[in-house]
Structures are given as C-alpha cells and as structure tokens.
Write the structure tokens for this entry.
Amino acid sequence: MAGLVEAKPQRWRALAIYSDGRECLLYVGPNFAQVNDHYDEPYFELLDDEERKLVSRIYLQKWIGAADSGSWQTQRNLPIPATSILPIAKKVSQSA
C-alpha cells in the first residue's frame, strides 16, 4: 500500500464510554473544532435509545505521537447530547 498517505491526519476523536466500560467511536477528524462541532450527529445516528441511556461520558481525545507509534490521550469530556432535535436543527439552519 505504498503511496497511501492521508493529506491531513485525523488526529482527534470523540469516544463514547458506556457505564460498563465499553467504548464506541463516534467521530474522527483532523482538528478539535471539527470533532467538537460534529460528534453529536453520529451519537444519534449510531446509537439507539438503549445504548444512549448507557453512555456515561464522551471523551475528546487527541492522537499523540507518530502515526505508527503513538496513543490517544483524553483532552477533556464533551457534553452528552441531550435530545435528538439538535442534529435536525443544525441541518435545517445549514440549509437555510
């Protein structure tokens, strides 16, 4: 797979943590702002009602190190989205 290199590495992610310790990757992006602005949409699209009830926190994490030898480090907690109205409202405001 020589030559397969991302122009801009995806160095940030939002990771949902369930109350039992399981994890669910919600969103990956090149910068803090993109992840912070968009993690709520996959939260509602990927997780059903029962899964959302089990989410205890959402971490914003940054990749630290080289692409092949680094680790994800938590930078802060992100708010757990409260209602599914948020992504719909965003889409409506963006199309107006």
